[in-house]
Structures are given as C-alpha cells and as structure tokens.
Amino acid sequence: MLIKEREEQQVKEKNTIKSLFARSEITVILATTTLFIIFSLFSDSFLSGYNLFNISRTAAIYIFIALGQAMVVIVGGMNLSLGQIGGLTVVISGYCMHVMGLPPLVAIVAGLIVGCLSGFINGFVMTKLKLNSFVVTLATSFIFTGLINGISKGYPYTEIPKSFTFLGREGFLGIPLLLWFALITLIIVGYIFKYTVTGRRVLATGGNIEAAKMSGINTNNTVVLANIASGFFAAVAGLLWISRTGSAQPSTGGDWMVISFAVAVIGGTALKGGVINVIGILFSSFLIVMVKNGLVMVDANIYFEQAYLGAILLLAVSLDSINNIMKAYKARKDLKLAQQKVTQSI
After folding, report:
1. Could you give phi then psi for residue 323, rounded to 5 degrees?
2. How far apart are CA 9 and CA 13, in angstroms?
C-alpha cells in the first residue's frame, strides 16, 4: 500500500509540475528572472535605483503598447498602424498644448478621441468591406503617418506643462506612478476578460468566429470594439510617452510594431486569437526592456538591438507553435488510446 501511495504521489507531483510549466506566464517569469540575474552580475550599474526606476517606467508604457496589439490579436487580427495611432495622438495632444495653449486635460481628451476614432476606422473598414486586418491597418498606417507629418511638419512640440509630466516622472514608494497605473490597468483588463460578458464575447470571437456567430454574438461589433480598444491603448501609451519625456515628438511610435507583438506574444497572447494573459504581458514587458537596457549596460553593440528583439519574437512564436503541435499530437494519441479501449471492451 505504501509503495502504491508513493507512486500515486509521484504521479501527482509530476502532473503538477507539468501543468505549472504549461502555463505561459511561468516561462516568461523564469526568463525575466534569469535575465535580471545575468545583467545584475555583469553590470554594476544595472541594479542602481535610477536604472531600475527607468526600466519600470519604460516597461509600464510597453504594457500599454502590448495591450493595444493584444486587443486585436485576440479577435484573430492585427494592428500594423498601432505606432502611427500613438504618434498621431502625440502630435494632436502636443499641438493642443504647444500651439493652441489649451489645458492638459483638453489635450488628453483630444488624444484619446483621436486614438479611439482611429481604431474605429480600422474596425469599421474591416467589417463593412470584409477586408483583412493586415491590409486595412497597413493602409491606415500610411494615412496616419501622412497626418503626423502634415500637422507637425516634422517638428516636436516642447512647451508641455509640468503638470502633464507629473505621472511620467514621479513615483510612489519608490515605484514609478506609470507602473502603478499599468498594474491597475492590467487588473481591470484581466477582470473584464474573465468575469464580464463583453470580455468573454471578445475571446469567443477570436477563438472561433463561426461558433461565436452561431451562439448569437454580433462578431462585427465585437471586432470594431476590439479595434477601438486597440486605438485607445495606443493613445494612452502616446500620452504617457509625452508625460515621461516632456515633449511631443512626431517620431513617437516608429518602433512600436515589433515591441507590441513581442511583448504580447511572449506574454502568452495567442496569435490564433482567443487567449490573453495579463500576467505574462507584465513580465514580458520587463523582459524586452531589460534586453534593450542590459545591452547598453554590458557595452554590447546596440546597433544589433532590432536583431535581438526579432530573434526573441521569432523564438516566442516558434515555441507557441511547437506547443500547439505537441498538444494536437497528445490529443490524437489520447483519442487513439480511447478508441483502442472501446474496441477491446467490445
């Protein structure tokens, strides 16, 4: 009996470990922790309060950038115009404060309206004209870029009130206010997708759009809503970028596409749709920032930065694909065993 109980206990422990590492956030948490230790050992300044504060601020903004991409990825699409929406938000908000002399609150509202409207345009064109998200957002990225250049003429808006930069530069309990804001947002997003009808409808649409239609979900409205949310988070990221830097740069958002996909996918957002992992997004944002920051700290060639990020993204996508293949293989194997048992019982 003792031997049998011991064997059962070992099987339970083995299954627990397998189920633990099957969770996507565990992998990214381990990767982030390992990278943190490596850079801490090889750089004396990596653990300085100033550097960790800056890493946390950047990671917070990356969270919003990733959420902007995740909103459309979970319904089976993508947003190639995410960075341009953020850039357009920055220009409009900067124009309101620098040129028109409007209060920061008005500039914030104007920026959020621009972001939501841009997302609505993407979603509306996709659903009404039945066009692929890749084609639509690629086209609108050029449109938004033209608006950015046309409005700003390539010049930054630097007269930003100090009250606007408070959130981006101050902290509470040694932690940047930006990170506190990002954590609260992740909790809200996690709650919406787990406990609300709207969140479940979005996930259902991304999981199987035909099944979602048959269950009575208006998938077109859901896709439009997801794109509006994408534009909203892109706008928030743009506003936070102004708050951190103290200026509205027209070049903002130029590198967001790689960042948005890298953080979202590494964090566990499935490219096939229907899955989002807020814990994974939190840690993957720190992972990407530490890669960029750590390369500078260890005197690596920063000109290869995009190559490193691309390799990390490719690895994440490959692991996700391999994981899906293994799951499909296991399902077929289990089905075959079940069929054999039925045949033997007959």
Report:
1. -60, -40
2. 6
- Pick the closest to residue 83 from 235, 253, 240, 234 (CA basis): 253
Q: Lowest mean pLDDT: which of 83-92, 100-109, 210-219?
A: 210-219
- 283: in domain: yes
Q: Are 88 and 148 in contact (CB under 8 A)?
A: yes
| Span 110-134, pLDDT tens digits | 999 999 999 999 999 999 998 888 9
Mean pLDDT score across all residues of the chain: 83
The DSSP letter of residue 157 is: B
Q: Is residue 145 part of a domain?
A: yes
Whether 331 is in a domain gets the answer: no
Determine, yes or no, domain membership for 208.
Answer: yes
DSSP of 276-336, one letter per residue? --HHHHHHHHHHHHHHHHHHHHTT--GGGHHHHHHHHHHHHHHHHHHHHHHHHHHHHHHHH
User: Where residue 67 sits, what CATH number does that domain have?
Assistant: 1.10.3470
Per DSSP, the residues of 9-22 read HHHHHHHHHHHHHH
Structure tokens at 283: 């840690």
In the chain, the number of structural domains is: 1
Contacts of 68 (CB under 8 A, 6+ apart): 79, 82, 85, 86, 229, 230, 231, 232, 233, 234, 237, 260
Structural domain containing residue 98: 49-325
- Contacting residues for 279 by C-beta, under 8 A, at least 6 apart: 25, 29, 186, 190, 267, 268
